Known about the structure:
By secondary structure, the chain is an all-alpha fold. The protein has 16 helices and no strands.
Amino acid sequence: MTSTDHSPVADHSDLQRRTIGVLFGSSIPARAAMTLTFTVAGLAIRDMLSSDRLAGLSTVAITVGTAVASGWLSSLMLRSGRNPGLRSGYAVATGGALIGALGIELGNIFVFLTGLLLFGVGQGATNLSRYAAADLATEATRAKAISTVVFASAFGAVFGPMATGWLGRIAESAGLDELTGPVIGSAGLFAFAGITIWLFLRPDPLVVIGGLNNQQPADKPAANMSMSAAASVVWANPLARLAALALVISQAVMVMVMAMTPLHMDAHGHSTGWIGLVISAHTAGMFLFAPVGGYVSDAIGRIPTILSGAAILTISTVVTALAGEAPRVLMFPGLFLLGLGWSFAMVAGSALLTESVATSDRVAVQGAADIATSLASGSGALASGFVFDMAGFHILSMIGTACAGILIVLSFVRLRLNQGGSGGLAST
């Protein structure tokens, strides 16, 4: 590992606890907003277009918004801090959810996708909040700090989809489309998350560690680097490169399979309630066990944890490949393990990425990695709709198995190189 973290530990311990608490509290409603709309977005597009083939457009729109937000919000954070960046992202997402709800009511695919594009900015903000947790953390506790914020998302992610049924009934009782209710609920949840950040994320952790552009010495222009320059920094560093690839591959595998799960289950007669419960199981795997991933990452190392996450992803996609008729006995464990493998790879990858580059480069590098992750996610989601429609859910899952296998090979090779050439730094 590189020794690039110069933040005082003792002076920041109380502030770190407060920061984690605020991020914990804001991540719950933000993640609930995401999962609420995700659960119904593909179904809404299916209804508008009378076809499953382009149902993945919902995930594409959200992830494109996330990708744009990753660059924009990272630049804003470099100029002004984590608080302005996060609250701005949640404000845009609130408006996007309302536009999306209007699109459903009008039956207009273009209005709906525009809303989802803006809605994706909220996902970008939620993703970047994990790095705010790492700002004041020490190297020994960085994965734990990241995983704590990810764990907070579990509450919103698990219980959010469970609310789709009654929010839909409320919407219907008001004369609206059933699918409009969850999307309007998402708007309120994002607004609550933004207000929480605005009021309580003070002092700003990025300001405290001197991470803003105007706090950098004049002879260190790296803080002003573009996203393309940040990507070059990542690619030139073997550890940062593995970390970024772990984030990209695990996200792509997870999204490809998850995006088509509601359609696969719906095609085999499962109700919206059962679909919501399976998505809840999946998001429980993503977020509820994140502290386990953080503990494992801090205890045995980043690369072994990434390797473990890739192995879990492989098992999960094998299970879903066998779920041709969408039996619940396979869909529940398959989607749960899909989320768990993603969680391990994401927590360890985020920690490895943060500590593998200089402090002055971190925010730009984090933004570049999240852009790449979002673009891969969007591409996978779009392709998944075509694969699902033309070949089936089992073939889609097998593609996920192959991608997870690539991550196993990459992480295993890097682990062996570290052990052989760096004095056995397996814990890197």
